[in-house]
Amino acid sequence: MEAIARTVLQKLSSFAQEEFGVIWNLQDDVQRMRSTVSAIKAVLLDAEAKTNNLQISNWLEELKDVLYDADDLLDDLSTEALKRKLMVGNSILREVQIFFSFSNQIVYGLKLGHGMKAIQKRLEDIAKIKITLQLTDRPLETPIAYREQRQTYSFVSKDEVIGREEEKEFLKSYLLDTNETVNVSVVPIIGIGGLGKTTLAQLVYNDNAVQRYFQQTMWVCVSEEFDIRKIAQKMIGSDKDSEIEQVQQDLRNKIRRKKYLLVLDDVWNEDRELWLKLMSLLMEGGKGSIIIVTTRSRTVAKIMGTLPPFFLKGLDLERSWKLFSRVAFDGGEEPNDRELLAIGRGIVKRCAGVPLAIRTIGSLLYSRNLGQSDWLYFKEVEFSKIDQQKDKIFAILKLSYDHLPSFLKNCFAYCSLFPKGFKFDKKTLIQLWVAEGFIQPSNDNRCEEDVGHEYFMNLLSMSLFQDVTIDDYGDVSTCKMHDLIHDLAQLVVGKEYAMVEGKKGNIGNRIRYLSSRTLSHFAQTPSSSHKLRTFIILGQQLYGSKCLDLLHFHFFLSLKCLRVLTLCGLDIVTIPTSIKELKHLRYLDLSKNHFLLNLPPDVSSLHNLQTLKLSQCFRLKELPSHMNKSLRHLELNECERMTCMPCGFGQLTNLQTLTHFLVDNREGFEMKHMPNGLRGKLEIKWLDSLRYYAEEVESAKVLLDKQHLQELELHRRKFNQEFCGCGEDENILEGLQPHDSIKKLVIDGYCGRRLPDWIGNLSSLLSLEINNCNALISLPEGFRNLISLKRLRIYNCSLLEIRCARTNGEDWPKIAHIPKVLIPPFTPSLFRYYT
């Protein structure tokens, strides 16, 4: 609540002259609204502390609703002002003349004025009620700053799991039993939520001896919906929307006569018939096959188990303390403060040996940088409240949420839109938070994505995320939520968020954020949905037809307040021109629409659009001729049929992500206009088109200032022998020198004889690939300077291979000048190497 109030106040306080030019004489209304919102904001802390009072709870709901409406109206105003600013100077266009016509300005001004006055009236009525509710002004507390000095994460990775060695070895004895008398055995692991059933199963599943023993290993997160077709699809690793007959045949072929290990994680199904149907498909495996089932239900274990169930217990006090120390103290080292340690042991005892609760409360105490008195307060006050509740573990987890600052509460709540077991991509999640306005402005001029990264790491340090994967550069790439944490997210979101899982679902009139696995609700335009800010179609697991028809588009395009729209994998063929009506839109995901040919020029009218995702739109040929200046992320992975890039990249000063750039000589040397803020990965294709501008490329050094790029791939369009040894290619590559902070470099189809010397300056380079460079005769001396290089791949470089083959590989290190640690064994028939 405090976050949306703060957002409205920021907008009211930051109006520039352009906005006042749109609303004319409404400055007084703006000032009144700002004063009213400020007065209400002052009592929010008191009100939110009294939400058990039904009147106050209803008052807060009404307040939240009007604040959202105010934010939409103010955003409308800012967008209108931005649109007029961008159109200044294009008076030759008739539509611009109409737009700026005096009558049009009057109509818009009157409409906006009425909207402002209506919202102000609602705010004043709400402000009057606060008096009758006897709410007192309490300045909002400044959140305690989260610690920044610890660079590692407070979560415990699978390699650091504490206190489960005996349980792991016991389960391994089940799995590695060589007395194989039956084809398939089922071992249930039973325990309450948060005990670590999944973690234990992961420890066993990833054990080297276990991986060697089984011919096939498979992991399926089942969760609450026991759908045989989906489970089978996950087992075979397919995301195709195939019929059950084809799926079951593929599954049986995959496991037939193979000794397999299957983990069915988080099973809730107590319908024995469903289990028997799935089990009939799994009997094709070879003798000694094992299925591990993790569940909270003894009934599930009784239905599914063929071997005695394994009852997972909580950690004893010493192991609990060891885990707590790992996350609560710097470096896992106990401090010398005996009183603090005594308080900590009392807190740990109340966590009842549940690892998730221990990690969560330990992370909370660490990240908030609390002292002895605060720890005592937690033990005596916070935990005394927990002891009175039925579900004590869940109440402990909720403490982490209650102590989050408001901006982190929004980010955490947003995760409730995704199903249990969902793998969050960190970059995508941050882009969604930015699109929804959850990121507060930074005092140190950092971009919103960098602040969003800090938010993500704070939530991770609070153990609200887990199961992270780390990319090649040591950064967190993906994560998941524990089921109990997901339950917590769905509990705290109230009436603003909804996820429609099945064919039926309730969409209330206060819903602002919605996700769904079905399109069946949305062929018409329910009035209760017109205020939606987020609409996410969850993609692969849709009920019914995936095809998005005009009726569905009519629904989506009626959602005038949308900031986020995800229509991924829906077989969309065309986008209606009326998409320009979604003027608040910040995030548009159209990826995996394999039949989409192009985007209408009207996409350029989305003046607030920040993120546009078009990856795996295999038939997409081109983008609108002029892209939005507000664009920050443009993803074009695997858009193989694109023929050119739009003009005006130099105007996209906010662009951070550009996964692909196609060089087209029809546009001249357009690449020199790419903005300096590019991050992550950039793949440049059709470099042979630059031969007409080779000298200009060499002198321009267009990539040298792109210091935030991590990966660079340079590709030719085709391999023509006539160009082998082409001097222009050497000039081009010389001019494409990246910043020396680059981590990965791929050079593919290069026709020069020598690589540029700048490669030896890439001191941070971790991975280097040189492919299909048939004219290359040597590698530069500077290769010896690649002190960080961990992976080298050289493939289909015929002259290098021939030269090494003459001496049976003895000259290979001399030719390559490669650091000794990377000198590979030479194989004439296969000139490649991995580390």
Automatic annotation (TrEMBL):
GO molecular function: adenylate cyclase activity; ADP binding; ATP binding
Enzyme class, broadest EC rank: lyase
Alphabetical list of InterPro entries matching this protein: Apaf_helical, LRR_dom_sf, LRR_R13L1-DRL21, NB-ARC, P-loop_NTPase, Rx_N, WH-like_DNA-bd_sf, WHD_DRP
EC number, as in UniProt: 4.6.1.1
Limits of the Disease resistance N-terminal domain: 6-86
Keywords: ATP-binding, Leucine-rich repeat, Lyase, Nucleotide-binding, Plant defense, Repeat
A Pfam family the protein falls into: WHD_DRP
GO terms for biological process, alphabetical: defense response; response to other organism
Top-level division of the source organism's lineage: Eukaryota
Positions of the Disease resistance protein winged helix domain: 417-489
All residue ranges annotated as the NB-ARC domain in the record: 166-330
Domain R13L1/DRL21-like LRR repeat region: 670-797
Protein's recorded name: Disease resistance protein RGA1
Species, as recorded: Cajanus cajan
Organism ancestry: Eukaryota, Viridiplantae, Streptophyta, Embryophyta, Tracheophyta
